[in-house]
Write a structure and sequence with these properties.
Protein name: LURP-one-related family protein
Structural class: mainly beta
Number of helices: 1
Family: Belongs to the LOR family.
Radius of gyration: 14 Å
InterPro entries: LOR, LOR_sf, Tubby-like_C
Distance between the termini: 31 Å
Helix content: 10-25%
Number of domains: 1
Strand order of the largest sheet: 8-7-6-5-4-3-2-1-12-11-10-9
Number of strands: 12
Shape: globular
Largest sheet: 12 strands, antiparallel
Length: 156
């Protein structure tokens, strides 16, 4: 299952549209005014289904993910000098990526590939392709991609 993650060009707060391969809307993401990033995820009918929220006043960037109102996990950046590294606290998931932070892979607890994320270059806004192996993991993979993109935006 492939998803296209595209940031909206003219938006005061972080806003993204996520599309299926056929061009139909899979999710809409809207940034909320808050201290730190807070991204609300909506299904095509407009119902809020998830949240990615930055924890403030932490040594290294950390984001919590919520399914509805229920906390389900987090992602935090680890201290490194050259290659960025993230630690995911969710179902034994791991992340491996390249030094550019444009291409990375989400792995399951046994090292199985859950999703492959790649940034498309030469677009006006951030655009990623998410190739998710199981549709059941699509929302979770999206949440972690949103957190990494928000962390990169804060750093830049």
């Amino acid at each position: 299952m492939k998803l296209l993650f595209k940031q909206r060009m003219f938006s005061w707060l972080d806003s993204y549209d996520i599309y299926y391969e056929d061009g139909s809307v899979a999710y809409t993401v809207k940034g909320q005014l808050s201290w730190g990033h807070c991204l609300k995820i909506f299904d095509p009918e407009g119902y809020e289904i998830g949240t990615v929220k930055e924890k403030v006043l932490t040594w290294m960037p950390r984001f919590e993910v919520y399914l509805g109102e229920q906390y389900i996990g987090s992602i935090s950046k680890e201290f490194t000098f050259f290659k960025p590294k993230y630690n995911i606290d969710f179902n034994g998931w791991q992340i491996q990526g390249d030094w550019t932070e444009w291409d990375y892979t989400l792995l399951g607890p046994m090292g199985d590939v859950l999703a492959v994320i790649s940034k498309e270059l030469w677009n006006w806004t951030d655009t990623y392709t998410l190739d998710v192996m199981s549709p059941d993991d699509a929302l979770y993979a999206l949440m972690f991609v949103l957190a990494i993109d928000a962390e990169k935006c804060s750093r830049d």
